[in-house]
Amino acid sequence: MKNPRLFHHNRPKRRLRPIGAVVIAAAVVCIAAVYMVSAHVPASGQSVPSSAVTKSTPSKTAASHAAVSSTPLTPAQVAASHLPAVQVSLAEAAKPLWVHVDLTTQNVVVYDAQNRVVEAFICSSGSPGNDTPTGTYTVTDRGESFYNPKYKEGAYNWVRFNGSYLFHSVPFDANKNIIPEQVADLGEPSSHGCIHLSMDDSKWIYDNIPRGTKVVVDNS
Question: Any idea which residues carry the catalytic annotation?
Answer without folding.
Answer: 168, 194
